[in-house]
Specification:
The protein is an all-alpha fold. It has helices at 2-26, 63-70.
């Protein structure tokens, strides 16, 4: 009887493990993106500028941070520095 209980516990543990692994592969998420930023046709995987496009809110955010974030893909710094 103990062997049957052990086999059942192992099967349940294996099922939970497989379920957790499936959840990780279906929804990998991105560290920098806010919820909903990567859904749809976001081919380039670039988030929207500003703190509302970030997963976590920055402690300090001013106009220079905003200008730098808006000009991210560009090679030149913003003119507001």
């Amino acid at each position: 009887m103990a062997l049957l209980k052990l086999a059942f516990a192992g099967a349940v543990a294996y099922g939970l493990y497989r379920y957790s692994q499936k959840q990780k592969t279906e929804n990998p998420g991105h560290a920098a993106f806010a919820t909903g930023e990567t859904s749809g046709e976001n081919f380039a995987k670039v988030r929207h500028a500003g703190p509302e496009g970030m997963k976590s809110d920055p402690v300090h955010w001013d106009k220079a941070d905003e200008a730098s974030d808006e000009s991210f893909p560009a090679s030149d710094p913003p003119a507001t520095y």
